[in-house]
Each structure stands twice: as C-alpha cells, then as structure tokens.
Amino acid sequence: MGLGLPEELQGYHTLVPLEPSLPGIERKKFGNWYSTVYRAVRTSDGIPHVLRRIENFRLSNQAAFAPVEIWSQIQHPSIIPIREAFTTKAFNDNSLVVSYAYYPNARTLYEVHMKPKPPPTYQQTTYYGRHHHQQQQQQQTIPERTLWSYIIQIASAIKKVHERGQAVRMIDVTKILVTGQNRVRISSCSIFDILLYGAPQQDVTYFQHEDLQKFGKLVFALCTNNMSAANQANLQKSVDSMKKVYSLDVQAFALYLCSKIPKTIDSVLEMLRPRILQEHDEALMATDRLENELMGELENARLFRLMCKFGFINERPEFARDPRWSETGDRYIVKLFRDYVFHQVDGNGNPVLDLSHVLTCLNKLDAGTDEKIMLVARDEQSCLVVTYKDVKQCIASAFE
C-alpha cells in the first residue's frame, strides 16, 4: 500500500490506518506524544482489533503495564475493552501500542456532531436549493433525548471506573466513539496511566473530580457545537445559547459538573435518576423489538432449512439408477409433497402463486402435525393420503 507499515506486529497483521494523515499539530492527542490508530487482525483468533500507537515513547519500567491488567478487568457496555499493550520498534522508533476491541464504522462524537460540514457545491445548491442546506445545518443540533442518552451512558461508565479506584481521563469529544444508533463508548482508556506511570501526579481523587469537570465541558461542547464553550470567557454566551434549544435541566446539569463544588459521581447520578429510569424503560423496549425481529429471523431459518432439504433430496439425476436413491418410497412421497406445496394449479391449469399456502404447509411440516393431506401423482392416476408427520419422517429418512 506504500504506507511503510510492518507486515506483522507482535501477533497482529494486515494493519490499516483508521485516521486520515493530518499535520503534526493535529495529531498531538496524548500530551506531547503523537498518536496513530490502526485496524489489525490478531493472528491467534483472526478477529480485527484496534491498535493505538503512541510514537517515540520509551518505556522506562515494565511495571508501567500494570494499569493494563486493572483496566482489562473493568467491563462495561460504554467502555471499549482493552486487550493488551506492548512496545515495538517495528515502526523504526520506540512505540507504545495498545490493543482494543474493534467496532466497525465507529466515529467520534466530534466527527458525528461537531465536525464542520463541507460547503455545498454549486450543483448541489442548484439542485436541492439553499433552504435544504440551511436545514441540514440546523439538524446538527443534537436532540435533547439523544443528549440525555449520551450523558447517562457516559455517567454510568464513569461510575464503574471510579468504583474500581481509577479515573477515566478520556472524557473528550475526540475520545468517545459513537458505535451505533445513540450508543457511545469511551475509547483509549489506560493510555495516560501507562504514559505517566512513575511521574509525580496528583491523588486519584483529583483526577476523578477532573473527570466530572471534563464531563461538564463535554456537555457544553455538544450543546453549543463549540469545543471551548465551557471556558470562563465563553461560559455566559454558551449558557444563553443552550437556553434557546435545551431545557433548564440540561443547563443546570452542565453548570453543576463544571462548578468547583466538591462532588462525586454518585451525586451526579442522583441528579440523573429520573432520566435513568426513562433510559432503562426505552432500553427494555428496544430489547423487546430486537427479540421480536430475532424470532422472525428464526422462523425464516427453519423454513430455509426445509427448503434446502427439498433441494438436496429431489431429482438427483446422478443417482437415478441407484436403487437406494431412486425416487420411490420415502423419496417419492417427498417429491409429491413438493408438488403439493409449490406446483398447485387452478381449474384452468394456471399456476397458483399462493405464498400463504406455502408458508402454512412448511410450518405444519416443521411441526409434524397429524393433519392429513392428499398427494396426487403427476399423471393423476394415483394418490396417497398422508399426514404432515409422515412426510417429515420421510424427509428425515431420505436426508440421512
């Protein structure tokens, strides 16, 4: 591909960059270290993973990998799981590589909601009209219900991390991924713990409180489409802007997070309690919808298996002279039943294309009911009266 990437990297292969090449200043995502993200396939299981590479990082102590073990035990639906971490010189430097679970087509909150859209071309403006593009710009505002869903998912993840005595340190619109419809997950956890291992740092309580302040800044940024909305110089303007679109509850919640009032994630969740119940109810309804759709797919799978058996059994010309396979006995019944299901004709000899008849027959066959049907030979000189149970046994016998 001409990208100068290693063919194999500590048990991973087929590396593909997931981010566009940007100027150096835009790639400084972890303090003073440049960062690049790749998708790679792990050789041991053949599953794609995400590799985040920190360039020009020299590991001074092997104990710096201790946080990886702690984070690998933190399992939460809104935190992207960490797999492992290692150092390598495969990129012609000293690089730290951290492996995470891979979510296809994931994008950051910044890319989904805040990244400026390219201006419309002359052809687009001519075809759709200027009003259409103005509406598109207005649609960038996140619906309040979606915003509360994001907030609850992130708060729940913070709660899990703080319970384990850790701090997230990744509450940022460029580090939180949208992996599905209104589903967000915090990425790149544990990296700061590795990079700054052994350096003089504040107590973990300080970083936990910083998590909550960054959480507030994130809410302001999403509401106003401005990364620096929570800065002191912009705060009043940001609050005024929020009032035009969002309820006072959103404003009060964001201001509480950004305030210097001593707080914990438990007090934050207390403010969210009514919203959490609504989120829980909607999650249960979504689960019910998915289960109903799954049931429909299971029904399709049962009927598809029956259709495959018909195809395997009926009309095998290569076995026409084999007495064990000729279309007599069980196989003859299966053949007539196939005609009964799919080759019905009306009084004028025209094909009857009745899908409900087909589905009814196949479902009765799968259930093996005792209902009797009459199967007529193609020359209409003979007929057989059998039950669906009999036909099911014939199919099983022929297929085996």
Automatic annotation (TrEMBL):
<dbReference type="GO" id="GO:0006397">
    <property type="term" value="P:mRNA processing"/>
</dbReference>
<dbReference type="GO" id="GO:0000289">
    <property type="term" value="P:nuclear-transcribed mRNA poly(A) tail shortening"/>
</dbReference>
<dbReference type="InterPro" id="IPR041332">
    <property type="entry name" value="Pan3_CK"/>
</dbReference>
<keyword id="KW-0067">ATP-binding</keyword>
<keyword id="KW-0507">mRNA processing</keyword>
<dbReference type="GO" id="GO:0005524">
    <property type="term" value="F:ATP binding"/>
</dbReference>
<keyword id="KW-0175">Coiled coil</keyword>
<dbReference type="GO" id="GO:0000932">
    <property type="term" value="C:P-body"/>
</dbReference>
<dbReference type="Pfam" id="PF18101">
    <property type="entry name" value="Pan3_CK"/>
</dbReference>
<dbReference type="GO" id="GO:0031251">
    <property type="term" value="C:PAN complex"/>
</dbReference>
<dbReference type="GO" id="GO:0008143">
    <property type="term" value="F:poly(A) binding"/>
</dbReference>
<dbReference type="InterPro" id="IPR030844">
    <property type="entry name" value="PAN3"/>
</dbReference>
<keyword id="KW-0547">Nucleotide-binding</keyword>
<dbReference type="InterPro" id="IPR011009">
    <property type="entry name" value="Kinase-like_dom_sf"/>
</dbReference>
<protein>
    <recommendedName>
        <fullName>Pan3 C-terminal knob domain-containing protein</fullName>
    </recommendedName>
</protein>
<keyword id="KW-0963">Cytoplasm</keyword>
<feature type="domain" description="Pan3 C-terminal knob">
    <location>
        <begin position="265"/>
        <end position="400"/>
    </location>
</feature>
